[in-house]
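Board notes (copied after class):
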Amino acid sequence: PPAGRGPAGMAAQVLHGGGAGANSANRWFDKTLQLVVGQDGTCGAVYDPAVIDGAVVAEMLDHAL
């Protein structure tokens, strides 16, 4: 499981869901963009960058924040 609510734990939750015994089943690693929102308030975006759409996703996330 992730290392608590510290920065490392939140990053692990957003990136891979904490492993096979936790939330990894709801991560789609073949998709370009995933928005992750956890019950505990952890949120983030997992993005597989491509040069052509990097600016669009950055603008969208900036607007959301």
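Comment from the instructor: The chain has a mean pLDDT of 78. Helices lie at 7-16, 54-64.
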